[in-house]
Prior knowledge:
Elements (H helix, E strand, L loop, with lengths): L8 H8 L2 H15 L4 H26 L4 H17 L13
Amino acid sequence: MESTIRLNLTRILEATGELQHFLDLGAARLRAAGPLSEADSEALIFSMADDLESHLRAMRARQGSATIRDLGTWTRAWIDERQAVPVEGSPPGVGRG
């Protein structure tokens, strides 16, 4: 039986020192999306968090285990990849207004 660990993304971001970078990325995405309703803004940020959590789970599954250093490396790579991609409007599934 495979063990399952519930990720606490906020704690991971704090422990790895990546919280501010994640928040900065979110702020940049919100600015790029233009005026959004509160619900759409939340949806954008939660979709980012879901994507990061999926990435961390996939990396952990591929490696078989994860240290806090691994989580930090994987998180930084995820953030760097998203910062390198130009943002055009809001992500799929997030409407305007």
